[in-house]
What we know:
The chain is an alpha/beta fold. The chain is built from 12 helices and 13 strands. The chain is globular and about 70 Å long.
Amino acid sequence: MPDLEEVLYSGMIAEGEHVYRFEAEFAKSFDLPVALGTSSGTAALHIALLLSGVEAGDEIITTSMTAEPTNTVILQCGAIPVFADVDPETGNLDPASVAAAIGLKTKAIVVVHYAGFPVDMPAMRRIADQHGVALIEDAAHALGARCAGAPIGTIGDFGIFSLQAIKHMTTIDGGVLTMRNPDLVPAAKKLRWFGLAKGVPRTEVDITRPGFKYNMHNVAGVIGLAQLETIQQRISRHIENGRFFDREIAAIPGLSVTRIDAGQEPSYWLYSVLSDDSDAVERILAAAGVSASKLHRPNHMHSVFQPFRRPLPGLDTYYRRLAHIPCGWWVGNEDREEIVDALRKG
């Protein structure tokens, strides 16, 4: 990889032109209004919350069915996570539950496109607009997905993507923040760099709001540029495998798959198999040499979120029935046939 070697030996390994080129190419590749590289998807989410005006004591409607950083970053803002329920057939936030959770202290709604399957974004947009709160898309699982004809990440006021090691594409670690209002870009850039404006001599800047060390560096940027050269083919393979499983697994008695509503185009980061005996699904696939698991622990089960627990019957049903299987670009035709054959026999 000559470009990486060039960066490593150039001495210019911090944030610079490779990051800015990556941001431009990422935005172009996924039809985003803007793309700001960050050190992680979590950093991008933190910035999105702050730009939404979130302060200590504010309430953020969110999901428990996600990786923990979605909600620990809410606590880092001093805000209160309000867990809405999920649709037991998708694992995604149920718009009716979100609407019922809106209160006087609600500042934002954070939706997670779980496993790469889009949330009902037109409904979420209507709820957010009706109540005058920010809508943030955690699209860490959903790079390349679409909903109602729009790219995931562009229907909310903010969208964040993860470029961590096991996502659709990676910069080893990293993230991207996008936003509908380009006027917020300067403030976002300051928040990702200590509160400072890049390109201005340190002796001439004035910090008016504390920021963070959330920037992307040139090494990650050049890796990201290389990843973008083939990302559409790799996402296409995720989708091809996901659609194969949609057809084949849904036809196996005792198993069902994630419901996909009209206008939703998932990018299938993981594939979710639903069964009344999910433990048996995991055992059957383990015997065939295939890793299957529930992946995440619902966040409200952690002690740190104990004060915010509430009944979530839809999530309870979904989690009990859930088993994830791989459907990434590395899953070949023979691999996926073996997975389906094992499930049929089981």
